[in-house]
Amino acid sequence: MTIINIDIISDIVCAWCYIGKKTIEKAISLHQKTYPGGKNDVIKITWRPYYLDYHQISSLTMSSGVLRSSVDKSEVAKLRLSHMSAEQLERLRQRMDRTGRSLGITFKPGGKVGSTRPAHHLIHLCQTTLNYPIEVRDALVARLFEAYHELEKDISSREVLREIAIEAGMDAGQVDECLDSFAAENVQESEVDREARENKEATHSGVPLFTIQGVFSVDGAQDLMDFVEIFGRIREEAQAAA
């Protein structure tokens, strides 16, 4: 048995992060099904926070770069992609749709986008502070991505986040305590905020960024065989060192 550790720096509202999530999950399944002894390997994923930067959209944000309130996704996309022609936008849309469908994702353009800070704090609470079972953490992350990209839900909404977290298996009281902390004024910088800032400073090529076994770095939503190859190398090195 080989333990493979994967750190994923991402933001929920990043479409390529959702694609990357689905890709690495497919790669893990392929490794466990096809690599000799791979079914016995333990894959440990840790989700790391990253806040996508909207500071250039001054009309929609505060000086900190966090959206004041939720706004239509189409409004943000129009501003962020204003440098692209209509033809380029259509090619991008087709590429996203095609890639998404190949992984079981149906991207929807509707809905609103806001700060993902509370969502990242819920993930941290689930996987680190309270150390919930991995199944709960996985369900939480999966539901957050699906809610935003496929169900057109506003994951900056307290009600939406509460529903998702409880459905994933988190305790309602603990969820409320976490979300209520964001209602207070002058919320201080947290451990999650500091890590998100450090991740942004260290991640020059954007997200997603995968760090596997603390050695292999893969940025962007790569082909699943890139991951499968890395998993195989890690397993072979572990066997050689045994």
From TrEMBL:
Gene3D superfamilies: Glutaredoxin. GO terms for molecular function: oxidoreductase activity. InterPro entries: DSBA-like_thioredoxin_dom, Thioredoxin-like_sf. It holds the Pfam family DSBA. Residues 6-229 form the DSBA-like thioredoxin domain. It comes from the Eukaryota. This is DSBA-like thioredoxin domain-containing protein.
